[in-house]
């Protein structure tokens, strides 16, 4: 089948079936590149979404602010509510203590997802959102099962909240994510987010004769396609 029908400007978006007979979604978002395609898909389905930015894992604060601002910029464009939650990084460091040398997708990431989704579920319970979900799973670099497990675990703390385990990568979602990132010239982060992922990405690059991570300077649309694919896969 030709790729064109799944591309951003050609895709005939189907109506998404959110669980729980509700039209209200609290969407945890990690960054603009991952969130953009998902936000469009949800909006096209007529689901009322509120974007919840809670990512105290992102280091350092300038990186956090830029990723947040980029996400808010696209929310404003789509006229969607954007919740700017705490940057309580001290709590994040406390929770991952002892897991500093875990590899990506390991135990530290489970704790990181748990913390972010627990806060999302708490906000949902306080403000009456019956369903939560996250943009983290669209990245092929992530373990979707690990993310869904954390999301379901966080939602299960509340009897009236469920976690929507939709696979956003399917039906060309990964392709449209990159197309949209280029179209909107989103900031292009080069590591997952925490100080340990920055360290490990730099170690990997240096071991392979590549330059260290550049922060705060690269936006989609000014690199070759193969580099785009690799970098967006690192986003979180
Ligand atoms: S690598 Fe990414 S998901 Fe894992 S702990 Fe660091 S920021 Fe969180």
From TrEMBL:
Whether Metal-binding counts among this entry's keywords is: yes
The record's keywords, sorted A to Z, are: 4Fe-4S, Disulfide bond, Iron, Iron-sulfur, Metal-binding, Oxidoreductase, Queuosine biosynthesis, Redox-active center, tRNA processing
What is the top EC class of this enzyme, as a single word? Answer: oxidoreductase
Could you say which residues bind [4Fe-4S] cluster here?
A: 30-31, 109, 112
Which Pfam families does this UniProt record tie to the protein?
QueH (PF02677)
Q: Which pathway does it serve?
A: tRNA modification; tRNA-queuosine biosynthesis
The set of disulfide-linked cysteines is: 192-194
**Family indicated by similarity:** Belongs to the QueH family.
Function of this protein?
Catalyzes the conversion of epoxyqueuosine (oQ) to queuosine (Q), which is a hypermodified base found in the wobble positions of tRNA(Asp), tRNA(Asn), tRNA(His) and tRNA(Tyr).
Q: What is this protein called?
A: Epoxyqueuosine reductase QueH
In its UniProt entry, the species of origin is given as Endozoicomonas euniceicola
Question: What gene name is listed for this protein?
Answer: queH
């Amino acid at each position: 089948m030709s790729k064109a029908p799944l591309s951003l400007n050609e895709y005939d978006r189907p109506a998404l079936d959110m669980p729980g007979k509700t039209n209200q979604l609290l969407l945890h978002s990690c960054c603009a590149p991952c969130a953009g395609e998902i936000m469009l898909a949800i909006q096209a389905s007529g689901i009322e979404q509120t974007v919840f930015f809670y990512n105290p894992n992102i280091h350092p604060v300038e990186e956090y602010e830029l990723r947040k601002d980029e996400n808010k910029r696209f929310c404003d464009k789509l006229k969607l509510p954007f919740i700017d939650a705490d940057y309580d990084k001290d709590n994040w460091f406390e929770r991952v203590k002892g897991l500093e040398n875990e590899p990506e997708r390991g135990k530290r990431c489970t704790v990181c997802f748990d913390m972010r989704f627990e806060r999302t579920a708490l906000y949902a319970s306080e403000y009456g959102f019956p369903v939560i979900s996250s943009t983290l799973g669209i990245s092929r670099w992530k373990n979707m099962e690990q993310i869904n497990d954390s999301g379901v675990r966080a939602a299960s703390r509340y009897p009236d909240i469920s976690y929507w385990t939709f696979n956003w990568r399917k039906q060309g979602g990964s392709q449209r994510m990159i197309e949209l990132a280029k179209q909107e010239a989103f900031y292009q982060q080069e590591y997952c987010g925490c100080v340990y992922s920055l360290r490990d990405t730099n170690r990997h690059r240096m071991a392979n004769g590549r330059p260290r991570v550049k922060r705060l300077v690269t936006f989609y649309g000014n690199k070759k396609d193969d580099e785009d694919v690799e970098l967006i896969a690192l986003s979180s």
